[in-house]
Amino acid sequence: MILAGCGGPISTAITDAPRSAAPLRLAALNALDARVARVAFRLSDANAALCPAIRQSAGWALHAASQYSEELRPYAQARFGLDGDLPGLLTVPAGSPAAIAGLQEGDLVLAVNGRALARGPDRREAAFEGLAANIAVIDRSLANGSTQLTVRRNGAEIPITVTPRRACGYEVQLNPSDELNARADGRRLFISTALAGFAETDDELAVILGHELAHHVLRHRVWNESGGAARRENESVWRAEGGEGGAEQQADRVGLYLAARAGYDPAVAAPFWRRFGASNWRVRFPQIVHASAESRARSLEAVRHEIELKQRAGENLVP
């Protein structure tokens, strides 16, 4: 498992692989996780004014040795200098508060405001709880503003102060799966490794993640702390609007605005959906709450035109 964050965690479970393939697979998953974290941070950072839930974000992506399987852990430790439950920086997106503070990939966080984080016990099985506890300590401090970290870099301990920024308060989780799928549950955004890998560019990835973030902006998904995630039933909306998307069509439109507000190219959306439909029969045809890929592409072409008119007029990109 890798844990990362666009102000909070992205978690990725890494399953066992043949020993000879483990280092290459680990590197590929690390790269994909870092890419998702980078795009998610830009979307979260640029759209804080529109998100119902806000947090103070450092923009980094964190992971720990304890989250990796026994097979992959030695490779992760050797590559990143990880140690037990201590959070290590997997990626530091350009322009993020972590990058501005001078943090670097491979830094290991040892203490927060002089309080040592817990290394935790040696484990054989992969575990999340120890890293989660350390991240909670960091998050509580970031919520109050500037935070001094003590990090280990190349064997030396360095004090670094991070000043977080307001960002959307939703975690983004990358899930190892062969399914081309993404979803939102009111608290998190989920994207499969297959779909993240299918996106050929960061602009296409922003179309996918922007759509899921739009469900949160539009309050289509509700999180109940006692009962978990409750997906809004969209079938009645879909029927009322003639079967052409309903809440999903709303999320397509608003999601493209969110991507454009973060500096991504809205022109990629329609070609992406046509390519997606050509390669996946499940989205090629209309579903209960989803329009066909071609219908979504045509609608997104209109939204792109709308966005470009506002950009040329110097208007604020508010959907």
Main attributes?
319 residues, alpha+beta, 2 domains, four-stranded antiparallel β-sheet, 11 helices, globular
Would you write up a description of this structure?
The protein is built from eleven helices and 15 strands. With 319 residues, the protein is of the alpha+beta class. Helix 1 crosses helix 6 (202-217), helix 8 crosses helix 11 (293-313) and helix 9 packs antiparallel against helix 11 (293-313).
Topology overview:
Elements: E1 2-4, E2 10-12, H1 22-46, E3 54-57, E4 61-63, H2 73-80, E5 88-91, H3 97-101, E6 108-112, E7 115-116, H4 129-143, E8 147-153, E9 156-162, E10 165-168, E11 171-175, E12 182-184, E13 188-192, H5 193-198, H6 202-217, E14 221-224, E15 228-231, H7 235-240, H8 247-261, H9 269-279, H10 281-284, H11 293-313
Parallel strand pairs: 11-13
Antiparallel strand pairs: 1-2, 3-10, 4-5, 6-7, 6-8, 8-9, 12-13, 14-15
Helix pairs in contact: 1-6, 6-8, 8-11, 9-11
Cofactor: Zn(2+)
InterPro entries: Mito/Outer_Membr_Metalloprot (IPR051156), PDZ (IPR001478), PDZ_6 (IPR041489), PDZ_sf (IPR036034), Peptidase_M48 (IPR001915)
Organism: Brevundimonas basaltis
CATH class category label of the largest domain? Mainly Beta
Number of helices: 11
**Structural class given helices, strands, pairing?**
alpha+beta
Detail the poorly predicted runs.
Answer: 1-18, 229-245
CATH superfamily of the largest domain: PDZ domain
> How many beta-strand elements?
15
The Rg value, from CA coordinates, equals: 20 Å
Shape by Cα distribution:
globular
Order of helix and strand elements from N to C terminus: EEHEEHEHEEHEEEEEEHHEEHHHHH
CATH topology name of the largest domain: Pdz3 Domain
Mean pLDDT: 87
Our count of domains comes out at 2
* Strand arrangement in the largest pleated sheet: 7-6-8-9
Quaternary organization: single chain
Main sheet makeup: 4 strands, antiparallel
Distance between the termini: 36 Å
